[in-house]
Write a structure and sequence with these properties.
alpha/beta, seven-stranded mixed beta sheet, 2-oxoacid:Fd_oxidoreductase, 33% helix, oxidoreductase
Length: 272
């Protein structure tokens, strides 16, 4: 590990654009952790982001690939998978990775999500779920828990939330996992599996947003307290053993939902 001014430098910084640093994420935001986990996965697999394409739409999560030394698209809200489809049809051997927030992917991008899953498009999607529309001020999102207060639901969210992992499995995705920023090793290994999988991979990472979700929903801007809330509202299969169903009600299951081989989408094979 290199030394600079007496400080140790993370070797994974070789993947980052120094001219883009420091990053713009709020203090305590989990997006920086996700970027860290991802560069660890690249390093572990010996993958070069300069030989890949990364795609992002709009939102806090969409800033993650901006810091990578890679070819990338950073554009309009919800259209990441439409762009990914075009790239994979023209360059099927090029690894394509999408970074999207829960609002970007599951709201305006929801239609593209279900059809990319249905087709088993050969891409990796990393969805950072901070449970609200964070960049635009903390509005309610498709993943916001019921009865939670946000900027646009001051009396509590009246709508049932989407379970994005179950939605992706039902739509036809061949690899789906959910973890949280509190599970760094599991996040990295899930990304490694996704990068090696041939087919549609969705890795959902439940992440802390102290600036908006914390303050509106939990009454705290302390990222540690928001992370503790996430720990208390998620569970693994091992943690669920011996617990009554009512103890798990309203909590998100962490783990692997599906991982199987299936034919991938390669476009039409004839003009007829």
């Amino acid at each position: 590990m290199e030394q600079a001014h007496g400080l140790k430098i993370n070797p994974n910084r070789k993947f980052l654009r120094p001219e883009k640093l420091p990053h713009f994420f709020c203090s305590g935001c989990g997006c920086g952790q996700v970027l860290n986990y991802y560069t660890q996965a690249l390093d572990e697999l010996g993958m070069d982001p300069e030989r890949m394409v990364h795609i992002a739409g709009v939102g806090c999560t969409a800033r993650i690939p901006v810091y990578l030394k890679t070819d990338m698209l950073h554009g309009v809200h919800g259209r990441t998978l439409a762009w990914a489809t075009g790239i994979k049809l023209m360059q099927p051997d090029t690894p394509v990775v999408i970074f999207a927030g829960d609002g970007d992917l599951a709201s305006i991008g929801g239609n593209h999500l279900i059809h990319a899953c249905r087709r088993n498009l050969d891409v990796t999607v990393v969805m950072v779920n901070n449970l609200n529309f964070a960049m635009t001020g903390g509005q309610v999102a498709p993943t916001t828990p019921e009865e939670v207060r946000t900027m646009t639901t001051p009396y509590g969210n009246a709508e049932p939330r989407f379970d994005i992992c179950q939605l992706a499995v039902a739509a036809g995705a061949s690899h789906v996992e959910r973890w949280s920023t509190a599970k760094p090793v599991q996040c990295r290994k899930a990304m490694e599996r996704a990068l090696q999988h041939k087919g549609f991979s969705l890795i959902e990472i439940v992440s802390q947003c102290p600036t908006h979700y914390g303050r509106y929903a939990l009454g705290t801007g302390d990222p540690v307290k928001v992370l503790e809330w996430i720990k208390g509202n998620t569970y693994t299969d091992a943690e669920a053993k011996g617990k009554a169903p009512e103890e798990l009600e309203g909590k998100l299951r962490l783990g692997q939902f599906i991982l199987e081989d299936r034919p991938i989408y390669q476009g039409t094979t004839s003009l007829g």
